[in-house]
Amino acid sequence: GAVVSQHPSWVICKSGTSVKIECRSLDFQATTMFWYRQFPKQSLMLMATSNEGSKATYEQGVEKDKFLINHASLTLSTLTVTSAHPEDSSFYICSARAPPAGGSRGEQFFGPGTRLTVL
Amino acid sequence: AQSVTQLGSHVSVSEGALVLLRCNYSSSVPPYLFWYVQYPNQGLQLLLKYTSAATLVKGINGFEAEFKKSETSFHLTKPSAHMSDAAEYFCAVMLGGSSNTGKLIFGQGTTLQVKP
């Protein structure tokens, strides 16, 4: 299957700093990427939808000024957590959606996740 | 509104025993349903999906799930558990069904423990 990478895999930062997380589709062009957040022992919550060349669409309750999303190319989306605070500590997972092809309906492939710890 | 509910946050089975992980859905449109597996500190891997074709869906690693509209269920089964099946399992419904938005709404997850 297709591969999606995330970088870094884990990051520790001080409160008040900003952290950028990259999501890359390695062997396909992703028309759409999604960002999810997962608290320990909990489910994934969709944060936003990222489309190449356009503004991200945020889910209700997600602060767009705090979680900046940039989808600069068909293979790269970035999530920047601005002025991070301890409550932002979480596991952030991206997924990339391949364009429909043949019988495929644009399957999503998930990255391995980035664990953010804010001190 | 669409949602999924996974019954049982923790399921424990013996190696070789039947695995049954329960998922019920709520959807105002014909649903697209998914099962994913997550190993510790990793992303999600698709096990199988239902997109309005055959109601019995076979996936990877010997898993299968049956879509039952009358019961609004999409339970995941495997005839014989292996130690390597121990992981977190998530049921998900795609927002908008066949409109294929790509947005997934996940259940709470079920931790599968496999005892030797």
Question: What would you say this structure looks like, in words?
Answer:
The complex is a heterodimer of chains A (119) and B (116). Chain A has 119 residues and is mainly beta. Helix content of chain A is 0%, strand content 51%. The N and C termini of chain A lie far apart (37 Å). Chain B has 116 residues and is mainly beta. Chain B contains no helices and eleven strands. Chain B has strands at residues 3-7, 10-14, 19-26, 33-38, 44-50, 56-58, 64-68, 73-78, 87-94, 104-106, 110-115. Chain B starts with a strand and ends with a strand.
Which descriptor suits the 3D outline of chain A? Answer: globular
Alpha plus pi helix count of chain A:
0
Rg of chain B computed from alpha carbons, rounded to a whole number of angstroms: 13 Å
N/C terminus separation of chain B: 41 Å
Radius of gyration of chain A: 14 Å
Q: Could you list the spans of chain A in which at least 5 consecutive residues all have pLDDT below 50?
A: none
Mean pLDDT rating of chain B: 92
Number of strands of chain A: 11
Structural class of chain B: mainly beta
Helix content of chain B: under 10%
Summarize the amount of helix of chain A as a percent range. under 10%
Structural class of chain A: mainly beta
Q: Could you state the oligomeric state of the chains shown?
A: heterodimer
Number of strands of chain B: 11
In terms of DSSP E residues, the strand content of chain A is: over 45%
Mean pLDDT of chain A, to the nearest integer, reads: 90
